[in-house]
Amino acid sequence: MADTADTERDLPLEFRSVPLGEIETARSRHMWTRSAVGVAASGDLVVTGEWDGTVTAREADSLETRWTADHPDHAVGIASLESDGEDGSDETIVVAGRGETGTIAAYDAETGDQRWRYDTVEDVGEAVKDTVFYLPYAVALETGSEGRLYAAARRYERDGDHRQWHSTVYAFDSDGSVRWTDATDASPIAIDLDADGERLAVGYNRCMGDHDTGLVVLEAESGERLWSWDPGTEGDRRVGDVSFDGESIAVSSHGDKRGYLLGPGGAERWRVDLAVETEIDDETLYAYPNHAYANDGRVAFVTGNTYAVESRETESRHPNEHRVAAFDADGDLLWDDEVRGFVHGLAADGGRLVAPCAQNFRLRDPDTHAVRWFDLESGAGGCERLEGIGTAAAVEDGTIAAIEEPVEYHDEGRTRGEYALRVGSLE
Asked: What sign does the CA torsion over 227, 230, 232, 236 have?
């Protein structure tokens, strides 16, 4: 890849902080999503979701609490909705849950009062085992115009060698009523709505049943399936992320570890190698491209951890693990850089990317713990280092909000960092 941009320099950016209470300390290997953060569309509110179900809205400037609500499940996803109320613009905070009910609930942005609630367990079914991976999980939220909300929920189960997913994609009206659903036996991982609000892209990560395609594009109004696409690879791994840019869709492929830009109907415009299988010292190594973001003719992909084809442990690292790479409309590389640690979720706003970086569990280097940001066109950006790990982030109108979680490496015996909200301004 190209020479890296210098994103590790210190910039004059002061992050404010507020503690979030207690959470189980993360370990060397990555834990599941346990926290969420969002910046309201109005820009004056930062909302956090915690593993114990606590949802707290704070003033963006002072971080003083405006309201607190108790979500029925672990609060692991947050989105902001705007609609036209009787007195003008009306804002709602939507929270996605992972737990017994897999609840999606909407809260008034001013008061925290619950406006509506939907339990996805009614569609994906109840957990058959009392472990986090079996719980109903509202894994993705996407907001549209007129208070429309789109969501994807899933549930996993296993009986011996038989593994199965149950999932549903939803369109909700502003009052919480369901406009349409689309159910499959695959595992959705990401959704994205086009700028006109007419098409919804759904990325499926694991396909091991009758549903055998990684990307489905639905008509947003009706839920009708318009077209589908798949990397055409063996096995059940398919797509890691999807992102619209006009008529194009960027797709990160878990099947072949490449990035794609697709046109209408799924026509392939280009593809690039990101972290494809590579031979190093008699090991075949790869890394998953976990995130994709497309905007204004540019596409960025972020890769994750190194894995070996034939063993659990590896002696070497894939040369493109934990990297962000940006490409132009023709698929030519613009820039690439290190993110250094695992990125649970990429945040973006226009031409800016924000990566909350957790541990590199193979190297166990605390210098990877940070919030890093990049300009999509040039790669220029900055870094706010954290004592703990960065596990969630949001960005809106120059405001960055991130979650820090404490971590203890298994071979160190020391807790680093705390459970806290970090907020800074890039403007």
From this structure: negative
Confidence category of residue 3, pLDDT binned at 50, 70, 90: very low
What residues contact 250, with CB distance under 8 A and at least 6 apart?
Answer: 241, 242, 243, 244, 259, 260, 261, 262, 292, 293, 294, 299, 301
Compute how many other C-beta atoms are within 10 angstroms of the C-beta atom of residue 122: 12
Q: Any idea which of 41-50, 54-63, 190-199, 416-425 has the lowest mean pLDDT?
A: 41-50
In angstroms, the CA 175 to CA 152 distance is 18
Are 114 and 69 in contact by the 8 Å Cβ rule? The answer is: yes
Beta carbons of 369 and 416 less than 8 angstroms apart: yes
383 burial type by CB count under 10 A (0-12 exposed, 13-18 middle, 19+ buried): buried
Nearest in space to 410 (alpha carbons), one of 361, 374, 372, 368: 361
* Topology, domain 16-425: Methylamine Dehydrogenase; Chain H (2.130.10)
Mean pLDDT computed over 86-114 = 91
Strand order in the sheet with 65-70: 36-39, 45-49, 54-59, 65-70
Q: Where does the pLDDT of residue 78 fall: very low under 50, low under 70, confident under 90, or very high at 90 and above? A: very high
Task: Give the C-alpha separation, 327 to 301, whole Å.
Answer: 9
> What is the C-alpha radius of gyration for the chain, rounded to an integer number of angstroms?
20
**Pick from 84-88, 196-200, 224-228, 233-237: least confident:** 84-88
* 99 and 60 Cβ atoms separated by less than 8 Å: no
Strand partners, 403: 392, 421
Q: What is the DSSP string of 119-155?
A: ETHHHH---SSSSGGGS-EEEEEEE-GGG-EEEEEEE
pTM for this model (two decimals): 0.95
pLDDT greater than 80 at residue 88: no
Q: Are 252 and 222 in contact (CB under 8 A)?
A: no
Say if residues 35 and 54 touch (Cβ distance below 8 Å). no
Tokens of 25: 């300390």
